[in-house]
Amino acid sequence: MIHLESLICYACQTEHTRNLFDEKERRAVVGTCGHSVCLTCSRADKNCPLCRKPDAFIHGTVNYEAMRQIEEFKTKAFEIFGKWWKTLVGLWDFGILEICISLLQETGIGVCSSCSSEEVLRICVTCQQAQNLKDVNLTNFFLCHKCADEKIERSSGGGTVHYCDKIEAKEWMRGAQNVQCYNCQQETDDPHVCTSCFHASTNNINVDTFSVCADCVIENHRGHVTTKTAEDYSIRHNTVGIVEKLLMIKLRSLEEKIGMKCKLRQMRLNLSAREALYWASCHYPLYTEEDCPEPKLIGRPKICEGQVEDILVNVKKQYGKLEMVESTCPCVEIWNEIVRLNIFDIHRLPPHFLAMAQKPKSEEDLDGCPYDFETSRKYREQLLTIIEKGEVLTEPHESIYVLYDN
């Protein structure tokens, strides 16, 4: 079986980008160490990004089994999403364990990276962080005192808050007397590090490398910090992007299969999927001994029961209904006029269509094209008035914000 994080190339990932293997430039190439990178990154002299083995991809062997399973994951994106989420919130049904994917998140069950036994696993946080620290280029993070203060001042008004810790920075200098501030290029012997930026760039959870069973924790990781993956937000944070890519590929494949049959229903489907991903990726507060309704929920995220599951069920229903649409909906002709007349807002979104596609509850099942709904009449009339003028907009249209009654 394959782990979710085995679907991506670690050699070319960035803070904001995860590249899935595909059948073109990113075919999976397996190294002599057993790990895989994409074809683009598989230079013969390249070290493995996971285990650091030198010249690991000298043979350039395509990992056909990985490619086969990746295509299977894309096809079963809804099922993958559902199982991924259920395991993370501790709702896994052991009665269907034999048909589940071998995710480390399955209440901790998977293949130990040290002894290859299938056991309840933990992530060794100490080793994972040490490896990330070893691999990162620290010169990209060192700041002099002045630049660190300026960065904190710039971020104090909102958004990402930047904190700098000079004690940790000194420990990371590895014996150097002076280092260069990456912002102003001045040398300093008292560097600061923006820990929020550093954490975002080094918070990779390589489950194939750092997942270990209880016996191996005792034998090889004594005194290290370990954690159950189901209780660690970083696991969800690092894998939700992969689940999102699989889900979006699934939705795009429908449009490629049937063409543009109903633009508004396709938009509504995408909005519902995005909302499910949003709620699944939020950093919820965790239950503690003081507020949990039952002991087994200690350490689990607080979230409305069934919220993500209900939205996902509705996404599958919308997908199935759209798949059955045979004739082209009149909203497609309206969409073509929107494109022709450039009726988009500053974010390049069609405001009237977006307002019609939205609904108060993403888990609510609605039949038909939103263009025909009574709730869409105001936006439909506004849009038709603009289209009747026949003037191409040279400035972005005003965005429309929909307010729902409680």
From TrEMBL:
GO terms for molecular function: zinc ion binding. SUPFAM superfamilies: RING/U-box. It comes from the Eukaryota. The lineage of its organism: Eukaryota, Metazoa, Ecdysozoa, Nematoda, Chromadorea. Residues 9-52 form the RING-type domain. The keyword Metal-binding applies. The keyword Transcription does not apply. Keywords: Metal-binding, Zinc, Zinc-finger. SMART domains: RING (SM00184). This is RING-type domain-containing protein. It comes from Caenorhabditis remanei (Caenorhabditis vulgaris).
